[in-house]
Structures are given as structure tokens and as C-alpha cells.
Amino acid sequence: MSKQFAVIGNPIEQSRSPELHHAFAKKMGITIEYHKRLAPLDGFLASMQVFFAEGGVGMNVTVPFKEQAFAACAQLTERAKIAKAVNTLWMQDGVLHGDNTDGQGLVAAIQALNWNLKNSRILILGAGGATRGVIYPLVQAGAQHIVIANRTLARAEQLVADLQHSVPSAQLSAIGLDQLSGEFDLIINATSASLSGDALILPESLQFKAAYEMAYGKASSFLDQAQARGVANTDGFGMLVGQAIEAFYIWHGVRPELKDFL
Ligand code: ATR
Known about the structure:
Blueprint: E1 3-9, H1 17-28, E2 32-38, H2 44-53, E3 58-61, H3 66-72, E4 75-76, H4 78-83, E5 88-92, E6 95-99, H5 102-112, E7 121-125, H6 129-140, E8 145-150, H7 153-163, E9 171-176, E10 182-184, E11 186-189, H8 193-196, E12 206-208, E13 210-213, H9 221-228, E14 232-234, H10 237-252
Parallel strand pairs: 1-2, 1-3, 4-6, 7-8, 7-11, 8-9, 10-12, 11-13, 13-14
Antiparallel strand pairs: 3-5, 5-6
The structure holds 2'-monophosphoadenosine-5'-diphosphate.
2'-monophosphoadenosine-5'-diphosphate is lined by residues 126-130, 150-152, 155, 177, 190-193, 196, 198, 200.
């Protein structure tokens, strides 16, 4: 029987992970089986444990279980500890390991676009789990100053206070979403506004050279505004592929090339 992999979430029907991992495996000459696994909202742990007890090798975790996956791991990578969320699980010598490849996926997608991160000034909209997961990898890739703007200012301030000691080489600051202004190399939309179809307003006083929308396959007022200004912009498909490549690398020890799957 070929090695078994899965992505677990609720809902899970929309997941593109099986198709990506099968494409990577084909390209790298590896045989795998990768399935979607729907867990009940109160049944993540049981479903995950059954998967590994039945010989499953690796599992991706998506909404809303990434924090529960983090809590379930006995061994975590540094970036997963900082993210406090896990999207990639594997069993090694009977010990459940967890990593978070979302941030590295974003970095790889940005680098594939040849957008500069070294010494960059980045504005991230949103202060939820999606933002928390990408700060450390962005800093490792060279970001110098990261401003986190959130509708609820206190949440951005809390995130900065929480992360400042983990990323001492970068300057982090928090502002309200109604205080957007200044000049940035890159602006990243990590809010769930596009998922719920809500508009975000980028004022004229806010200048930026590139815009990254973490969501994909959704109408995005954020991307519409970047487009209208003639600024380089993209949705989050590259990040999705990038995080999947990093998970594939953890499980198989070989790294497919991002550009082959965009
Ligand atoms: P995730 O894990 O995807 O980051 P989350 O933790 O629910 O999800 O966070 C969602 C983020 O999107 C938050 O920063 C939220 O702002 P608040 O903290 O003020 O709630 C932001 N968000 C959601 N809908 C938004 C909207 N319509 N306009 C602006 N920000 C929005």
C-alpha cells in the first residue's frame, strides 16, 4: 500500500491540497495517496489519532483545527511555536511532530515574484492567526519593519507585545485600520474581509509598491484597489502552493519547484 497522507478540516471539500500533493509526487517520482478528511467540529483529536494509528504518515491541518493541532504535538518547530498554530503533522518514533509552513509558503511565493523582502517595510492588515503565522518567516527573509494594522487596535498591540521578543531583529508596531498612511514596500491582506465579502479601504495617503492578498479565488476589494493604482498585486494561490511544498519537503525530503505549479 502506498504511503497515506491527508488534509483535515471542517469544511474540507474546497481544499486543493490533495491535487497539489499528487502533482508534486508525480513530478518527483514518488507514489502517495492523499485524501481529504472531514472531522466533526468537536472531533479533531479523535480523527487525527485514528489516521496515525492506521499508519498515516503525514497530515495537513486547516481551518478551524490549527490551534488544536498545535496543542496536540509533543515536538514543535521554532516557527510553529511562534505561530502557536500547526498546519503540518507527522509521526516520528511514535512522537507527534508539528510545523507551520504557511509563513515560509508566503515568503517563497513573494520571492518567486521577485518582490524584495530584504530590509523591507511591510504593512500587514489583520491581527489574527494568519498574521501571527507569517511574521517570523518574513523577518527571517529580511523584513526590517512590520506594521500590523487591525480593526480592533488592542488585538494588534497584543500581537506585537507577544511577538516582539521572538523577532528582536525586526521593528514591529501596531496601528488601527483607520490609521493607514505612510510608505511601504509591500502590503499584505491577512484579514478575513475578502472571505466574508467585506470591503477594505486603502486611503490615498497610503503608498505601497506591491500588494499580496492571502485569500484566493474570491473577489477582493483590496486587490481591486491595488490594480486601480497600477501596483504589482496577486492573490494567495502562490502561498497555498508554497505551504504545500514545504509540507511535502518535511515528509519526503525533496522540494518541488514553486514555479512549476503556479
Ligand atoms: P485568521 O486566523 O484567518 O487570521 P481570525 O483570527 O478570525 O482569522 O482574524 C481575522 C482578522 O480579520 C482579524 O484581524 C479581524 O479584525 P478584528 O480583530 O478587528 O476582528 C479581521 N477582519 C475580519 N473582517 C474584517 C473586516 N470586514 N474589516 C476589517 N478587518 C476584518
